[in-house]
Amino acid sequence: MFTIHGWSFDKSVWRNTEFEKFHHFELPGHGESPFKETDLEKLAFEMGEVVSGGTVVGWSIGATVALLLAFYFPAKIERLVLFSPTPSFCKVSQNPIVCKNFLRKLRRDYERTVKWFRKECRFDGDVPLPEKEKAITLLESFMKLDISDILPKINVPVSIYVGQKDKITTLQGAFQVFRYLPKATLKVYPGKEHYIFGGI
Hints:
Elements: E1 2-4, E2 23-25, H1 40-48, E3 54-59, H2 61-72, E4 77-83, H3 89-93, H4 96-108, H5 110-120, H6 132-144, E5 158-163, H7 170-180, E6 184-189
Parallel strand pairs: 1-2, 1-3, 3-4, 4-5, 5-6
Helix pairs in contact: 1-2, 4-5, 4-6
């Protein structure tokens, strides 16, 4: 059983959740990650080499990687648990102009922009900043990727959870993933935002 956290965070987001004792994968440049690939599809293959099977839990960008793992390694993945997924961050969840402006701000003032983003997620914990270049390259890959076409081909059971007030990947993103997946359930948490874990 494995978890994959969201962008700019690390494995500490799973603390005090039912997934705390899972094996935690950290994104390249985040935490103590051993992974090198910052292209999400290549990263899924890199992670897939060490996934031994069972349930994969993903949040936000981590949900996208989890879906790619289920698509590329169907024999290894039995179930997905997805928090705040989207099939295409900059087509479904956000306007492309918003994405471009965010990347511009990251390059100009990285620390301040990451901290602003975490507040927008409604996260108030203390997580070390990820490595700048890897984090930005990873986010660029997320922003370019559209996995809509592969979702109908994922045949494992998928549980989807989303905050009703999620401004990052949005309700629309979660609904679109739910609509395309053949074996999915969806639960919306009233009043919750992108950082959905506290109190659920």
